[in-house]
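User: quick one
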Amino acid sequence: MGVPGKGHNSSLTDAEMSLSAAAFRREQRVVPGGSMRAASWFRPHPPYAARGQGCWLIDIDGHRVLDCANNFFSLIHGHAFQPILEALRAAMERGTAFGLPTEGEILLAEALAARNPRLEQTRFCNSGTEAVLAAIKGARAITGRGRIAKFEGCYHGAYDWVEPSLDSSPENWDDDQGNPASVPYNKGTPVSVLEQTVVLPYSDADRCAAILRREGPTLAAIIVDPQASRAGTVPISSDVVSVINEACRRDGIVLIVDEVISFRLSFAGASPLFGFEPDLVTTAKIIGGGLPIGAVSGPAERMSVFNHSLGKPRVSMGGTFSANPMSMAAGLASLTHYSESEVLRLNGLGDLLRTRTRQKFAAANIEAFISGTGSLFRLHLQKSRVTDYRTAYPSPEVAVLLQQVHAGMLNESVLLTPNCSGALSTPMTEVEISDLADKFVKVVAEVMDSR
Ligand code: PMP
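Assistant: Done. Structure below.
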């Protein structure tokens, strides 16, 4: 707040002449697609970020926007949070990386264990993708099995085995028994990967139970994100949680709860909130305070699969920048200031956003819904209930409307992710939240009226 800047309100001609447009044209020559990340891409091109302050982001043309994307929900304290900057400055003076362990990694692992005793031991890496792949390799070594199960449409990073079904569509989403199909995401995915990945329905406990009864004895792991963004940002039902817990107990399957995004939902993370007692937990994003990070945590007995101190470990987990002191320092400052009371305050702001927006949608008779719990939310342009990837799946017409809402919100100086989801950050107050609710309703009403 209090950062100078203009609203993001430009005509097409202005847009074409903007510094962001020029940067995009230049980047296209040296980067395929002219921008590094497919997930943050939108037409004609995203604005280029110059700097951030608190919950505000300023682009290179000087537009100031309320940042609800927060680098894909990793910046729980927004931008340039003083305690993180101070921790980073001090760490930088000491040295940015060593080929030796540092005290910082002990402190951050201890901070995780102090929040949830189930996170007794931790191994750090540099991204959620790496954490997930290490957890899956760990599960394979623990069980001696190769296959895994994941939920339809759910994102767990770029490891091949968690990608199937990521963008399945009504034309290919059922197999010949009416269960979710293991559909390749990238061209060239080996068939063996599809055979090794069982896809589960996120909101159908009976079907889920039937699939797991059949496939359970062959599974190394079930990986689940309890409020999966691509499955609509809706919490998983307690019935499905029971089915997962029961299958893991019965068949000795390793339960991996992927809290890369959902860790923020409670002080102790997402697992206790949803009734999971995971063997392994993957985290990333907010535990790095804005720097690259990933982590696998769990009870010492499970984590011993990575123990190298007694000879060759069952699974080797390393990396040049794993547990680098900069990420450790920023992560510790981030978690220290995401106290129990801050978690509750931020979750309360999320409730306020959803309540206000839903009331206003209802009052204006707008066919839209805002899902999520805690500080995470996602907009859906439909009245029918969103329960999973399929019910959240936008028709081609709705996909266009969502793009228009995204662009409309940017014109109103609010940055959402391209699928119209967002996350709150601790610099936000009721002022930003009520403004956000008003803008949501205004923009959605305009887009729906223009159909
Ligand atoms: N798991 C989940 C649930 C995620 O949302 C993400 C990233 N959005 C990942 C894993 C991968 O994390 P990263 O981008 O740090 O590799």
